[in-house]
Amino acid sequence: MSKPVPQPPKNLRNTYIAPRPPYLRPIIICGAIMALSSRREVISPGSPLYDYALSHLSATGLKYASWVQSGLFYFLFGAHAIETAVFTKRLAKHGVQVSSLSWWQWMATCFVGGKYCFVHFDREVGKFD
User: Fold this and answer.
1) Which superkingdom heads the taxonomic lineage of this protein's source (predicted)?
2) Which of 33, 35, 49, 120 has a 20 to 30 Å separation from 26 between CA atoms?
């Protein structure tokens, strides 16, 4: 058996390709979780989450809920920032220049969607592994 011949990288020529299903939904969910983790009002008195779930917790439980929210915030924003930095190499390899609008669109999508943007991008450039 012969090895498959590696294909040259597909050149996107500064083109942004918006995510479509099945990648769109997880990217939107990631963005929503990131937005909710950044707002302390989500677990404060008066919010639906507090009124229906957290109001039944003790003071210690509320403190843990606050830690969970902070942990989600730092984990998601930190991990997505690192993923976005790594993603710049993929964009350069596939013909998306830093000075282009499409570069910024890809960066925003990657920051919000993280891993799911990588999968979407790989499908668009023809890398299915």
Assistant:
1) Eukaryota
2) 49
Task: Count Cα neighbours of 23 within 13 Å in the Cβ-side half-sphere.
Answer: 19
Rounded Cα distance between 6 and 103, Å, is 26
Structure tokens at 58: 């003790």
The answer as to whether 52 is a domain residue is yes
- Could you give the number of structural domains in the chain? 1
Q: Is residue 93 part of a domain?
A: yes
Domain around 69: 24-124
Structural domain contains residue 56: yes
DSSP 83-99: HHHHHHHHHHHTT--TT
92 and 73 in contact (C-beta within 8 Å)? no
The pTM assigned to this predicted structure is: 0.84
Residues 107, 87 contacting (CB under 8 angstroms): yes
Q: Is the pLDDT of residue 72 over 80?
A: yes
- Mean pLDDT within 46-51: 86
